[in-house]
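Lab meeting, action items carried over

1. Structure of the two-component assembly. Owner: GW. Status: complete.
Input record:
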Amino acid sequence: MTKVISNNIRKLRFEHQEMTQQKLADAVSVSRQTIVAIEKGKYSPSLEVAFKISDIFNKPINEVFLYS
Amino acid sequence: MSYRESSIFASLLITIGIWGNYTWGVFNLYQQQLFSTETMYSLLFTAVLYTIFLEVVLQIIVAIYKHKEANDKSDERDKTITMRANSYAYHILVLGCFCVTFYILFPVISQFTFSMPGLAKEYEVMHLIIAFGLLAEVVCSLVKLASYRRGY
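Predicted assembly:
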Protein backbone atom coordinates (compact mmCIF):
# COMPACT_ATOMS: atom_id res chain seq x y z
CA MET A 1 0.00 0.00 0.00
CA THR A 2 1.35 3.43 -0.94
CA LYS A 3 1.94 5.85 1.89
CA VAL A 4 0.94 9.48 1.45
CA ILE A 5 1.69 12.69 3.30
CA SER A 6 -1.33 14.33 4.93
CA ASN A 7 -1.57 17.11 7.49
CA ASN A 8 -3.68 18.62 10.27
CA ILE A 9 -3.06 22.26 9.38
CA ARG A 10 -6.72 23.16 8.89
CA LYS A 11 -7.66 21.66 12.29
CA LEU A 12 -4.70 23.32 14.00
CA ARG A 13 -5.54 26.71 12.49
CA PHE A 14 -9.01 26.55 13.99
CA GLU A 15 -7.59 25.50 17.35
CA HIS A 16 -5.33 28.57 17.23
CA GLN A 17 -8.04 31.24 17.38
CA GLU A 18 -9.22 30.46 13.87
CA MET A 19 -5.99 31.63 12.32
CA THR A 20 -6.51 32.64 8.71
CA GLN A 21 -4.58 31.06 5.83
CA GLN A 22 -3.16 34.49 5.04
CA LYS A 23 -1.85 34.93 8.60
CA LEU A 24 -0.19 31.51 8.51
CA ALA A 25 1.22 32.25 5.04
CA ASP A 26 2.72 35.54 6.27
CA ALA A 27 4.21 33.80 9.32
CA VAL A 28 6.04 31.20 7.21
CA SER A 29 6.82 33.57 4.32
CA VAL A 30 4.90 31.76 1.60
CA SER A 31 1.84 32.76 -0.44
CA ARG A 32 -1.72 31.98 0.66
CA GLN A 33 -2.07 29.77 -2.44
CA THR A 34 0.83 27.66 -1.17
CA ILE A 35 -0.89 27.17 2.21
CA VAL A 36 -4.10 26.20 0.33
CA ALA A 37 -2.15 23.65 -1.73
CA ILE A 38 -0.43 22.24 1.39
CA GLU A 39 -3.74 21.95 3.30
CA LYS A 40 -5.36 20.11 0.40
CA GLY A 41 -2.39 17.72 0.26
CA LYS A 42 -1.57 18.79 -3.29
CA TYR A 43 1.85 20.15 -2.42
CA SER A 44 4.43 18.79 0.01
CA PRO A 45 6.40 21.68 1.50
CA SER A 46 10.15 21.75 2.05
CA LEU A 47 11.46 20.65 5.46
CA GLU A 48 12.12 24.28 6.35
CA VAL A 49 8.52 25.34 5.73
CA ALA A 50 7.21 22.19 7.48
CA PHE A 51 9.31 23.01 10.56
CA LYS A 52 8.17 26.65 10.51
CA ILE A 53 4.50 25.58 10.40
CA SER A 54 5.01 23.12 13.27
CA ASP A 55 6.80 25.83 15.23
CA ILE A 56 3.88 28.24 14.82
CA PHE A 57 1.45 25.65 16.21
CA ASN A 58 3.92 24.59 18.95
CA LYS A 59 3.62 20.96 17.88
CA PRO A 60 6.24 18.40 16.84
CA ILE A 61 6.43 18.02 13.08
CA ASN A 62 4.96 14.48 13.15
CA GLU A 63 1.77 15.80 14.74
CA VAL A 64 1.29 18.34 11.98
CA PHE A 65 2.38 16.20 9.02
CA LEU A 66 1.47 12.52 8.86
CA TYR A 67 3.01 9.88 6.65
CA SER A 68 0.58 7.01 6.53
CA MET B 1 -7.47 32.84 -10.18
CA SER B 2 -4.38 34.13 -8.34
CA TYR B 3 -2.20 37.04 -9.45
CA ARG B 4 0.47 34.74 -10.87
CA GLU B 5 -2.06 32.66 -12.82
CA SER B 6 -3.70 35.81 -14.22
CA SER B 7 -0.32 37.24 -15.18
CA ILE B 8 0.74 34.03 -16.98
CA PHE B 9 -2.66 33.77 -18.67
CA ALA B 10 -2.40 37.37 -19.94
CA SER B 11 1.09 36.72 -21.37
CA LEU B 12 -0.12 33.51 -23.01
CA LEU B 13 -3.05 35.30 -24.65
CA ILE B 14 -0.76 38.05 -25.95
CA THR B 15 1.75 35.53 -27.32
CA ILE B 16 -0.88 33.41 -29.07
CA GLY B 17 -2.92 36.40 -30.28
CA ILE B 18 -0.15 38.55 -31.69
CA TRP B 19 2.04 35.82 -33.15
CA GLY B 20 -1.01 34.00 -34.45
CA ASN B 21 -1.93 37.26 -36.17
CA TYR B 22 1.62 37.51 -37.57
CA THR B 23 1.39 33.98 -38.99
CA TRP B 24 -2.02 34.77 -40.47
CA GLY B 25 -0.62 37.99 -41.99
CA VAL B 26 2.29 36.13 -43.61
CA PHE B 27 -0.11 33.47 -44.91
CA ASN B 28 -2.43 36.10 -46.44
CA LEU B 29 0.45 37.96 -48.07
CA TYR B 30 1.62 34.71 -49.61
CA GLN B 31 -1.85 34.01 -50.98
CA GLN B 32 -2.01 37.48 -52.51
CA GLN B 33 1.56 37.09 -53.75
CA LEU B 34 2.55 40.31 -51.98
CA PHE B 35 5.08 38.75 -49.64
CA SER B 36 8.52 40.37 -49.60
CA THR B 37 11.27 41.15 -47.09
CA GLU B 38 9.80 44.66 -46.57
CA THR B 39 6.30 43.41 -45.77
CA MET B 40 7.81 40.79 -43.46
CA TYR B 41 9.78 43.50 -41.60
CA SER B 42 6.64 45.57 -41.27
CA LEU B 43 4.65 42.64 -39.84
CA LEU B 44 7.51 41.62 -37.56
CA PHE B 45 8.03 45.08 -36.05
CA THR B 46 4.29 45.52 -35.57
CA ALA B 47 4.15 42.19 -33.74
CA VAL B 48 7.12 43.06 -31.49
CA LEU B 49 5.79 46.55 -30.67
CA TYR B 50 2.27 45.25 -29.94
CA THR B 51 3.72 42.51 -27.76
CA ILE B 52 5.68 45.02 -25.64
CA PHE B 53 2.79 47.50 -25.45
CA LEU B 54 0.09 44.94 -24.59
CA GLU B 55 2.36 43.11 -22.14
CA VAL B 56 2.99 46.35 -20.20
CA VAL B 57 -0.69 47.42 -20.26
CA LEU B 58 -2.15 44.01 -19.35
CA GLN B 59 0.40 43.36 -16.58
CA ILE B 60 -0.46 46.78 -15.07
CA ILE B 61 -4.19 45.96 -15.24
CA VAL B 62 -3.62 42.55 -13.60
CA ALA B 63 -1.46 44.16 -10.89
CA ILE B 64 -4.15 46.79 -10.17
CA TYR B 65 -6.91 44.16 -10.14
CA LYS B 66 -4.92 41.79 -7.87
CA HIS B 67 -3.04 44.47 -5.94
CA LYS B 68 -2.97 42.47 -2.67
CA GLU B 69 -0.85 39.69 -4.20
CA ALA B 70 1.06 41.76 -6.75
CA ASN B 71 3.99 42.54 -4.44
CA ASP B 72 4.31 39.04 -2.96
CA LYS B 73 7.73 37.51 -3.43
CA SER B 74 7.84 34.15 -5.20
CA ASP B 75 8.00 31.31 -2.69
CA GLU B 76 9.36 27.76 -2.95
CA ARG B 77 6.26 26.46 -4.76
CA ASP B 78 6.46 29.22 -7.38
CA LYS B 79 10.14 28.45 -7.92
CA THR B 80 9.48 24.70 -8.26
CA ILE B 81 6.69 25.32 -10.77
CA THR B 82 8.89 27.73 -12.75
CA MET B 83 11.74 25.20 -12.81
CA ARG B 84 9.44 22.45 -14.06
CA ALA B 85 7.97 24.69 -16.79
CA ASN B 86 11.45 25.88 -17.85
CA SER B 87 12.61 22.28 -18.11
CA TYR B 88 9.83 21.49 -20.63
CA ALA B 89 10.61 24.69 -22.56
CA TYR B 90 14.32 23.81 -22.60
CA HIS B 91 13.62 20.44 -24.24
CA ILE B 92 11.58 22.14 -26.96
CA LEU B 93 14.36 24.67 -27.58
CA VAL B 94 16.93 21.87 -27.83
CA LEU B 95 14.67 20.09 -30.34
CA GLY B 96 14.43 23.42 -32.21
CA CYS B 97 18.24 23.71 -32.30
CA PHE B 98 18.51 20.22 -33.81
CA CYS B 99 15.79 20.95 -36.38
CA VAL B 100 17.37 24.25 -37.43
CA THR B 101 20.82 22.65 -37.64
CA PHE B 102 19.46 19.85 -39.87
CA TYR B 103 17.57 22.42 -41.93
CA ILE B 104 20.81 24.33 -42.60
CA LEU B 105 22.97 21.24 -43.13
CA PHE B 106 20.55 19.50 -45.48
CA PRO B 107 18.80 22.10 -47.68
CA VAL B 108 16.91 19.34 -49.46
CA ILE B 109 14.72 19.00 -46.34
CA SER B 110 13.16 22.40 -47.08
CA GLN B 111 11.49 20.95 -50.19
CA PHE B 112 9.46 18.57 -48.04
CA THR B 113 8.99 20.54 -44.82
CA PHE B 114 9.27 24.30 -44.43
CA SER B 115 9.93 26.73 -47.21
CA MET B 116 9.10 30.41 -47.70
CA PRO B 117 9.48 31.34 -51.38
CA GLY B 118 10.60 34.92 -51.89
CA LEU B 119 12.61 34.99 -48.70
CA ALA B 120 16.33 34.54 -48.23
CA LYS B 121 17.45 31.38 -46.43
CA GLU B 122 18.45 33.39 -43.34
CA TYR B 123 14.87 34.61 -42.90
CA GLU B 124 13.53 31.07 -43.17
CA VAL B 125 15.93 30.04 -40.42
CA MET B 126 14.90 33.09 -38.38
CA HIS B 127 11.23 32.07 -38.70
CA LEU B 128 12.04 28.53 -37.62
CA ILE B 129 13.88 29.84 -34.55
CA ILE B 130 10.97 32.21 -33.73
CA ALA B 131 8.49 29.34 -34.13
CA PHE B 132 10.39 27.06 -31.74
CA GLY B 133 10.90 29.96 -29.29
CA LEU B 134 7.17 30.70 -29.31
CA LEU B 135 6.29 27.03 -28.95
CA ALA B 136 8.64 26.80 -25.95
CA GLU B 137 7.07 29.94 -24.45
CA VAL B 138 3.52 28.62 -24.94
CA VAL B 139 4.38 25.22 -23.42
CA CYS B 140 6.16 26.94 -20.51
CA SER B 141 3.06 29.05 -19.78
CA LEU B 142 0.69 26.07 -20.15
CA VAL B 143 2.76 23.91 -17.77
CA LYS B 144 2.80 26.76 -15.24
CA LEU B 145 -0.97 27.27 -15.53
CA ALA B 146 -1.67 23.53 -15.20
CA SER B 147 0.66 23.27 -12.20
CA TYR B 148 -0.94 26.24 -10.42
CA ARG B 149 -4.44 24.83 -11.12
CA ARG B 150 -3.44 21.38 -9.87
CA GLY B 151 -1.75 22.81 -6.78
CA TYR B 152 1.77 21.79 -7.71
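2. GW to write a short summary for the group page. Key points so far: The CA atoms of residues 36 and 111 of chain B lie 20 Å apart. The first helix of chain B runs from residue 3 to 31.
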